[in-house]
């Protein structure tokens, strides 16, 4: 992508409305724009990051055996009357009427709709287990939307829903998502700790929130500090192994970890003082097992091996991609801007032409840009005629992991400078060596 033809509206000044660093940096880097309170556009740079986050989420959901579909944002109120949640959900739900005066709503979550899909076609235990997910916009009319897309009214959610014949089978489904979440957040460059959590309007008894420790987090959390170094389940984790996944769950729940709603002061005080971690955190995922809470009132049942009908046991599993993007920034930035983990960086590398219009600089940059693009890298080429200082500041602000800097003096020697955004380390090398670093 040539910066001269891209749309990346950088702000020079710090936006006054932004209270936390991620919100400030997302606005300054031209990633998002507020359209009305708690409702955002994702501008091209932000959209790239969001897409990469979603690709990792999708990859890990698929690995764990979940199947992607797509459900609409607008739902009929009828389904919600069946579950009894239409009245219970309160003011957070945006209620709308269509031209025939039929009550509709903008979905805050999809338990009812997915249960309807399930009951319409699944009739036998032989079709279980089943886990259906989508990545879709939701709307919750939050009292206090704030911190940009961290807590917005319209936001994106990956929501998965599992269906099983028995409680035991449902627990295995829960463990699959539990392990998939550990892997997902790790690949996003985050350390998320599962903590026992309150179930709120979704319901059920078994629930974990996945929390990233950050001073700007909205939740107050308490846990054993060893969680920070626990091993993440590997790529070859067998998601069909009941014992294997149970062992992962048992290990990750063996020490104290709870959000403030579930906090047990006495149990926490039993943890040796030096091992206690009491901090603030950002909830990036939340999983629930709620048994037959929706399947019973909505009549979602299958024929079991005993020939009898059984209400299915369900769980739901949420991740907030539009919250994850700022959470990653909270965890990874410095005074100059964002530092993206390579896995979600909007571009793999930025090529900075320090003197656009200078034939040797232009030729060198074009050569590198073409070679890296051909090798399948996402390359941003700063071919604008801004001052070098402005270009460096922009490259640092948008946090692309590697910068290749082509200035007249180095280029005259057939060289460029390669800068690591995270460490700031700069290395001068031949043009060929710079290319080979990515192509090899
Ligand atoms: N139906 C269940 C799981 S699919 C559910 O709705 N769970 S939830 O309410 O906990 O939301 C799931 C995830 O969505 C949260 O962990 C969080 O990452 C994200 N999320 C929830 N509300 C917001 C919001 N207002 N802004 C941004 N992300 C949000």
Characterise the protein shown here.
- By secondary structure, the protein is of the alpha+beta class.
- It is 32% helix and 28% strand.
- The protein is built from 14 helices and 23 strands.
- It has helices at 21-28, 44-63, 77-83, 85-88, 111-121, 167-187, 242-252, 265-269, 295-298, 321-331, 359-374, 388-398, 408-412, 431-439; strands spanning 32-36, 39-42, 67-68, 74-76, 94-97, 103-106, 130-139, 154-164, 192-196, 206-213, 219-224, 257-259, 276-291, 301-303, 309-311, 313-319, 333-334, 337-338, 349-353, 379-382, 402-406, 415-420, 426-430.
- Strands 3, 7, 8, 9, 10, 11, 12, 13 and 16 form a nine-stranded mixed β-sheet that branches. It has a five-stranded mixed β-sheet with strand order 20-19-21-22-23, sandwiched between helices.
- A hairpin with a 2-residue loop joins strand 1 (32-36) and strand 2 (39-42).
- Helix 2 (44-63) crosses helix 10 (321-331) and helix 11 (359-374) packs parallel to helix 14 (431-439).
- The model has no long low-confidence stretch (mean pLDDT 96).
Task: Tell me the layout of helices and strands.
Elements: H1 21-28, E1 32-36, E2 39-42, H2 44-63, E3 67-68, E4 74-76, H3 77-83, H4 85-88, E5 94-97, E6 103-106, H5 111-121, E7 130-139, E8 154-164, H6 167-187, E9 192-196, E10 206-213, E11 219-224, H7 242-252, E12 257-259, H8 265-269, E13 276-291, H9 295-298, E14 301-303, E15 309-311, E16 313-319, H10 321-331, E17 333-334, E18 337-338, E19 349-353, H11 359-374, E20 379-382, H12 388-398, E21 402-406, H13 408-412, E22 415-420, E23 426-430, H14 431-439
Parallel strand pairs: 3-7, 19-20, 19-21
Antiparallel strand pairs: 1-2, 4-6, 5-6, 7-8, 8-16, 9-10, 10-13, 11-12, 11-13, 13-16, 14-15, 17-18, 21-22, 22-23
Helix pairs in contact: 1-10, 2-6, 2-10, 6-7, 11-14
Bound molecules: 5'-O-(N-(L-cysteinyl)-sulfamoyl)adenosine.
5'-O-(N-(L-cysteinyl)-sulfamoyl)adenosine binds near residues 111, 151, 283, 285 and 316.
């Amino acid at each position: 992508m040539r910066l001269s033809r891209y749309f990346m509206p950088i702000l020079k000044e710090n936006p006054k409305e932004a209270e936390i660093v991620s919100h400030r940096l997302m606005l300054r880097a031209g990633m998002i724009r507020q359209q009305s309170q708690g409702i955002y556009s994702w501008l091209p740079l932000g959209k790239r990051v969001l897409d990469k986050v979603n690709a990792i989420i999708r990859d890990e959901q698929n690995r764990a055996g979940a199947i992607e579909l797509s459900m609409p944002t607008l739902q009929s109120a009828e389904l919600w009357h069946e579950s009894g949640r239409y009245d219970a959900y309160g003011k957070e739900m945006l209620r709308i009427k269509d031209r025939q005066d039929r009550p509709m709503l903008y979905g805050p979550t999809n338990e009812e709709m997915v249960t309807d899909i399930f009951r319409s076609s699944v009739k036998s235990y032989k079709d279980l287990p089943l886990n259906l997910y989508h990545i879709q916009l939701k709307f919750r009319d939050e009292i206090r939307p704030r911190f940009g897309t961290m807590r917005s009214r319209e936001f994106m959610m990956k929501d998965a829903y599992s269906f099983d014949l028995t409680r035991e089978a449902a627990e295995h489904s829960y463990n699959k998502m539990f392990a998939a979440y550990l892997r997902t957040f790790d690949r996003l460059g985050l350390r998320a700790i599962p903590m026992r959590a309150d179930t709120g309007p979704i319901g059920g008894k078994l629930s974990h929130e996945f929390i990233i420790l950050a001073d700007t987090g909205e939740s107050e959390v308490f846990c054993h500090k060893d969680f920070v170094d626990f091993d993440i389940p590997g790529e070859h984790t067998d998601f069909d192994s009941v014992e294997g996944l149970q062992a992962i769950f048992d290990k990750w729940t063996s020490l104290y970890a709870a959000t403030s709603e579930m906090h047990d002061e006495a149990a926490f005080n039993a943890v040796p003082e030096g091992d206690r971690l009491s901090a603030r955190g950002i909830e990036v995922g939340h999983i629930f097992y709620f048994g037959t809470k929706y399947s019973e009132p909505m009549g979602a049942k299958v024929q079991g091996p005993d020939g009898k009908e059984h209400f299915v046991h369900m769980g739901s599993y949420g991740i907030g991609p539009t919250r994850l993007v700022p959470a990653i920034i909270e965890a990874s930035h410095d005074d100059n801007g964002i530092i993206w983990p390579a896995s979600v960086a909007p571009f793999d590398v930025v090529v900075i032409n320090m003197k656009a219009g200078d034939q040797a600089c232009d030729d060198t940059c074009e050569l590198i840009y073409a070679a890296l693009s051909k090798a399948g890298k996402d390359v941003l080429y700063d071919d604008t005629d801004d001052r070098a200082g402005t270009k460096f500041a922009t490259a640092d602000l948008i946090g692309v992991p590697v910068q290749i800097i082509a200035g007249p003096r180095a280029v005259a020697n057939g060289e460029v400078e390669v800068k690591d955004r995270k460490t700031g380390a700069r290395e001068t090398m031949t043009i060929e060596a710079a290319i080979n670093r990515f192509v090899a």
